[in-house]
């Protein structure tokens, strides 16, 4: 059964939609979130197939019956693409220029693009929690055990 994780569903559905739009329309490569991928691959159909495949792999991970390294690895392409999109968004904010070249003030682009940066971070946190346990427990792993004086 699919995991009830809204951030994973958001990322899956986003990548499926982006994949289809990239395959069908070259102008979709100019969207800020997909622009960095276009700088690397330079072919909208190939980009769309990669993004769509990452969404499908993540979807397969969500429907696996057990949590294991295979399920975790199925989510890695999606996480990578989310970090690429987050980088493109952060770059747009810093350079004050969208992926298609339109310039706007820093605050304008930050208001528009901050969500993709946040999605990449929240997705990474959720994937880590699902596959490696609650992040709150990690602090106890780094503390020295008490010697009981």
Can you characterise this structure?
The chain has 149 residues and is mainly alpha-helical. Helices cover 72% and strands 0% of the residues. The chain is built from six helices and no strands. Helix 1 runs antiparallel to helix 3 and helix 3 (44-62) crosses helix 4. The longest helix is centred in the middle third of the chain and has 27 residues, at 69-95.
Radius of gyration: 18 Å
Categorize the overall geometry. Answer: globular
Quaternary state of this entry equals single chain
Question: What does the main sheet amount to?
Answer: none
**Which spans have pLDDT < 50 for at least 5 consecutive residues?**
none
State the end-to-end CA separation.
48 Å
Global mean pLDDT: 90
Strand content: under 5%
| SSE succession | HHHHHH
How many separate helices?
6
**Considering DSSP H and I runs of 4 or more, what fraction of the residues is helical?**
over 70%
Write the layout of secondary structure elements.
Layout: H1 6-24, H2 32-41, H3 44-62, H4 69-95, H5 106-132, H6 138-142
Helix pairs in contact: 1-3, 2-4, 3-4, 4-5
Summarize this structure as a short list of keywords or feature phrases.
single chain; 149 residues; mainly alpha; 72% helix
Can you give me a brief rundown of this structure?
With 149 residues, the chain is mainly α.
